[in-house]
Amino acid sequence: MELCRRRRNPKRCWKQKKRRLEAEGFFLIVEKPLPAFVSEIAVITSPTGAAIRDIIKIARKRNPKIRINVLPAVVQGERDSGLAAGSA
Predict the structure, then answer these.
(1) What is d(CA 37, CA 52) in angstroms, rounded to the nearest whole number?
(2) Is pTM, for the whole model, over 0.85?
């Protein structure tokens, strides 16, 4: 473990971390069937962009009674944290 803290052997450190996470069940694949009819969705995006308008339009066309929760996020510009794209 000491080698991981000092970053002298990144490959060994990665393998140790992976083994630890596997033991905790992080890579356990549980197959659950997707519901045939969804009543609610959540979307993380800019509440003012074209993407959310398209998502709402298509979702309402498929199911007029669907509940759509929009969780606002800054997706571009100076205030963008990069979290939405997975770069952080």
Answers:
(1) 21
(2) no
